[in-house]
Each structure stands twice: as C-alpha cells, then as structure tokens.
C-alpha cells in the first residue's frame, strides 16, 4: 500500500481501506449488525449494534494485524514479528501470524488475564511476561525487536493497522446505508481513524462520535492542544481503551475527520455492559460497551439511525462478575446495607422477614460480633440485596428504619 503524507491529505485513503478489505476476504468475518429496541426507544430512532465482539479472536484487532503482517517483505516475515498487549491485539497478532506462516512473539504484562494469555498461546504465539503495565511491556517488545530484527507490530500507530480497522466502516455502510451517526470507542485511535477515513470519503454527512473512558481520556486535551499529550495514570475497567497517549498517525486523522469525542463514567460502562448482556444477549467487554454507554448517558445527542460499534468481547469471567454487580448497583438493582441489631435468637430471622415483605432478594449475609465499635449485645450485619431499581432501594431502606433498625450509611 502507498500512503499520502502531504499536510492537506489524509495519511490513509479510501483506496487503502478497500485494498485491506480485499486482503481480509475469507480471513475476517463480516460481523453481524443487530437492532436494539431498548436503545432505539431511548434515542427515538433506530439504533444498531455492529458486533465485532463476534469477530475471530473476539475483537476487531485481527483486521489491522493481518493487513500489517501480510504487507511485510519476505525478509521481514522471515525475521518474525513481535507485539506488546494485554489481550486483544496480542490475540490478533498471534492468529494473523499463524495464518500467514510467520513466527510471532508477544509480550504481555504480569497482570494480564489468564484466559487472554492462554488464547494468545493457543493461536500460536510465544508469550513472554514482562512488567506490570503495558508501557513497560511495550518497551520490552521494542527492545526485543531491536535485538533480534523481528518486526514490531504496533497496536494502532501505523497506516496498515488503520486501513485494516477501517474495513469495519465499509461494512457498516453496506449493512446500514441509512446510518446518520456512528459511535466508536477510542483508545490509541486506530479503529476510529480507520472508520473515519472510509466513512467520510463515501458519506461525509455521517457524524462520527468517538468515546473514551473518563479516567483514560487522552484525546480531548490532546485535540484541544493540537498535538498528542500523555494522560498520566489512566485508570478504567475498560482495558481495551486504557491508552495513555494517542498515536501520532491516528491522532491526525481523528482531528480532521471525527466530529466529536465524548467521555463516559465507570458507572455508565458497567450499566452498558449489563444492558448488552441482558437485552441484546451479547457478551461485550467494557471497552466494547463504551459506545452503548455514551448513547445511554445522553440519548438525545445522537441523530438516528445510529450504529454503536461493539469492538470486542474478551472479558475475564472474574472481572465480568464484578462489573455486572457494579452495573446492577449503578442501575439501583443491587443494594448493600450495614445495620446493627440486638444479638439474640431469632433476630436475623426477624430482619429477613422485614426484607421478605418488601420483596428484596438476599444474596449474601455477613455477621460481625467482635468489634470494639459494638456494644456488648450488638451485632453488625452486612446485607447484599438484589432490588428492582432506585425506588425499590429507597423502599427497602425505609422499611428497615420503620422496623427500628439502625442503618449505617
């Protein structure tokens, strides 16, 4: 592929994305587009979900990785490739390399979820653990490339990667030609940049909205400054978009072609993941649910028809459990209360009777009897309850207080 670099032209062109689409034929799936009645009701117009969580390896990353590695010269392929990732890019590089007969080494941080490590190895990569954060892992991979001659495959900051990810945009236009708004999560920016190149070339009237987690939102200040800035200590459950600095190549494209970048809270992310699971019957990771979180947070801001891109579905089961509980709490469907009662026979049964009357489902009960804060005949009880919403939570708390219990906020 050839790329234009003049200041007035994009670094990646529509022809590049179309070339990538031909290259990916028979390799990447054309993923499904599913309607969402719940989100459509919120927006007042059709909302569709582009299901890249159902892509091979569980995310869109295979697209860019395959295009990048397929474009290597024979001598570069012979030297092998190396990448650094905590999950999705690792799996994309591993599978793409195996399909192309190229040796791959992937550096992953010590805290990477075990299912993602196992999947990367299953796809054929040699996995090496280094560091505790991706920045340290990235440095190790680049050092390995310098020492061995292996080609470093960046997760987002390369034109081939962007062209490959842009094929998602072509599919969206084919599957939903009436689309007015596309909402996509942004980490380093490769996916949003690729989609913007493809879509704006064919449909400049389509609005493209990027979404970042509020705790890792490097793009808004970078766009305001006109250059990529580092976001210190990015923190979010959405590890797929937890990137501290925009990529140089996608930053330029996003600045020119993406209409808006929004941020969403952790509560919004967990609520969106819960909605995808319950209403759409789709397993989506927090980063993949970020577009849904944006639509749920301010539905009036999106002109329909809307396509929200579910970029990935690789989520650790233990993290999923915590996120779902957090999402239930954010939606008022999970309530944790601590209260004190007299330590006597039947006291707990009486308490549970109060909860039964207001139809609260008890998930867990914890007793504390030995604490210097407690009186001689007191016991502290922590209850975890499943509730029906904010109004039901208020009803439960009121019932406990009416029954004479001291609820500790």
Average pLDDT number? 89
Radius of gyration (CA) equals 24 Å
**DSSP summary: helix tally:** 16
**How would you sum up the global shape?**
globular
Short description:
The protein is an alpha/beta fold. It has helices spanning 14-24, 37-43, 61-70, 74-79, 88-100, 114-122, 134-148, 159-175, 190-202, 219-225, 248-257, 266-278, 290-297, 317-330, 347-357, 390-402; strands at 33-35, 47-51, 81-84, 104-108, 126-129, 151-152, 181-185, 207-213, 260-264, 306-310, 334-342, 361-368, 378-386, 406-408.
Provide structural commentary.
The protein is an alpha/beta fold and 409 residues long. The chain has a 6-stranded mixed β-sheet with strand order 1-2-10-7-8-9. A 4-stranded parallel β-sheet has the order 5-4-3-6, with helices on both faces. Strands 12-13-11-14 form a 4-stranded antiparallel β-sheet. It is 43% helix and 18% strand. The model is unreliable at 1-6 (pLDDT under 50).
Write the layout of secondary structure elements.
Blueprint: H1 14-24, E1 33-35, H2 37-43, E2 47-51, H3 61-70, H4 74-79, E3 81-84, H5 88-100, E4 104-108, H6 114-122, E5 126-129, H7 134-148, E6 151-152, H8 159-175, E7 181-185, H9 190-202, E8 207-213, H10 219-225, H11 248-257, E9 260-264, H12 266-278, H13 290-297, E10 306-310, H14 317-330, E11 334-342, H15 347-357, E12 361-368, E13 378-386, H16 390-402, E14 406-408
Parallel strand pairs: 2-10, 3-4, 3-6, 4-5, 7-8, 7-10, 8-9
Antiparallel strand pairs: 1-2, 11-13, 11-14, 12-13
Helix pairs in contact: 1-8, 3-5, 3-8, 5-6, 8-9, 9-11, 12-13, 12-14
């Amino acid at each position: 592929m050839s790329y234009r670099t003049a200041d007035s032209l994009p670094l990646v062109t529509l022809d590049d994305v179309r070339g990538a689409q031909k290259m990916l034929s028979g390799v990447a799936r054309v993923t499904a587009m599913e309607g969402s009645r719940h989100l459509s009701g919120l927006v007042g117009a059709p909302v569709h979900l582009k299901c890249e969580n159902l892509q091979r390896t569980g995310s869109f990353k295979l697209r860019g990785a395959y295009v990048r590695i397929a474009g290597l010269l024979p001598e570069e392929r012979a030297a092998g490739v190396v990448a650094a990732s905590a999950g999705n890019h690792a799996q994309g590089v591993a599978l793409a390399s195996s399909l192309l007969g190229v040796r791959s080494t992937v550096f992953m941080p010590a805290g990477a979820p075990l299912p993602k490590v196992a999947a990367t190895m299953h796809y054929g990569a040699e996995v090496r653990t280094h560091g505790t954060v991706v920045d340290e892992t990235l440095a190790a991979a680049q050092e390995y490339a310098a020492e061995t001659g292996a080609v470093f495959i960046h997760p987002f900051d390369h034109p081939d990667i962007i062209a490959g990810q842009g094929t998602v945009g072509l599919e969206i236009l084919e599957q939903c030609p009436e689309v007015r708004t596309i909402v996509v999560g942004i980490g380093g920016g490769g996916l949003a940049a690729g989609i913007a190149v493809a879509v704006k070339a064919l449909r400049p009237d389509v609005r493209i909205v990027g979404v970042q987690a509020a705790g890792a939102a490097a793009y808004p200040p970078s766009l305001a400054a006109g250059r990529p800035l580092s976001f210190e200590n990015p923190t979010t459950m959405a590890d797929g978009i937890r990137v501290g600095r925009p990529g140089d190549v996608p930053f330029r494209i996003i600045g020119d072609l993406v209409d808006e970048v929004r941020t969403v809270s952790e509560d919004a992310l967990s609520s969106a993941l819960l909605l995808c699971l319950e209403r759409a019957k789709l397993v989506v990771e927090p980063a993949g649910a970020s577009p849904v979180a944006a639509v749920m947070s301010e539905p009036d801001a999106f002109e329909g028809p809307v396509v929200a891109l579910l970029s990935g579905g690789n989520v650790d089961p233990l993290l999923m459990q915590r996120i779902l509980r957090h999402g239930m709490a954010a939606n008022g469907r999970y309530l944790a209360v601590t209260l004190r009662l007299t330590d006597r026979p039947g006291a707990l049964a009486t308490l549970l009777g109060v909860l039964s009357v207001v139809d609260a489902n008890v998930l867990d009960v914890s007793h504390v009897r030995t604490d210097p804060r407690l009186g001689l005949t007191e016991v502290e009880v922590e209850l975890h309850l499943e509730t029906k919403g904010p109004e039901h939570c208020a009803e439960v708390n009121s019932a406990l207080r009416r029954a004479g219990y001291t609820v500790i906020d």
